[in-house]
Amino acid sequence: MQVIRGNQLSDYLEQNGDCEPGCLADTGLLYAAAYEDDRLHHQASEVFTLFAEYDVQVYANVISRMEFVDLIFRKQITNGAIEVFENMDAGSVHKELFNLLKSIRDDNTGSKRAGQSYRVNEAKLKRLREEMEKSSGPPKWRQFCAHYAGQLLINEWKVLEEDLGLYFVEVLEGATSDIIAKPLHWNDMVCTMGEEGIRGPDAMIANLFLKSRLPLLITNDNDIARSFREDDPRHASKTILYLE
Amino acid sequence: MKAKEAFMENRKKGPKKGAVEKWSQRLKELGGQKPPKELMEILNKTEKPKKIAAPKDRDPELDL
Known about the structure:
The structure holds 2 protein chains of 2 kinds.
Chain A: E1 2-4, H1 9-16, E2 23-25, H2 27-34, H3 41-54, E3 58-61, H4 62-86, H5 95-113, H6 122-136, H7 138-163, E4 166-169, H8 186-196, H9 200-211, E5 216-219, H10 222-226, E6 239-242
Parallel strand pairs in A: 1-6, 2-3, 2-5, 3-4, 5-6
Helix pairs in contact in A: 2-3, 2-4, 4-5, 4-7, 5-6, 6-7, 8-9
Chain B: H1 2-10, H2 19-31, H3 37-43
């Protein structure tokens, strides 16, 4: 198993031809590709440019797919909240909403300075919904969500996935497919969690990568990268592109 | 030759050139829109200035 960095991808693709049947991507690559304020956006963009040139398909598991759409939703709501704040009168009677929006704006500013892409977490999202509904009613909250995220998620999501060459691996317990060479077992994933000390979603990606025919994994998650051993013969045919 | 052509036609495709630029720009546009006008009309409701009541110890004789 070898670990390569961003500027080595071109050489890898040159040496390994078409990287059939494709590569496995975790959520970090997908999000970085979507948002310019992510510190890895430029690298992610270069990865997809090379994949377009070499016609490499990009696979992800259903967990990554869900995480990706969730991150986009939260980021869009965050940006919408900042826009509402910037158009809101400081003398508004809706003081709690105003203060909450201000805190979101401030968190975003702080993250930008630290080179990070900020999005509201679940707790803040719930508070935002609560305050906006209290101030303007549930239909206006739904209008706000539709305005900043709904249109994309409902009308354009499929095209986004197609344009990015994204495909999703969906396999039942113990099954194989054209992508999965060895049966995927829930138990193997759980064992990986315990042995490597990594979270469930990361263990699912590691397990899927090992059992698949995909030769390349792209991740910015050190936990996933470290769960593979360079000298393990089971990992000999695999390569990890680590974004940092 | 036909089998190969069929394979290439059915083969899943990689990313389109410029896809990242296209979609990161689209997300930026969506996120940077002005909020819905009707929403802001409600949220920008401000407090009305309070009327100042006459002081209680005012001598009514002074009004003559």
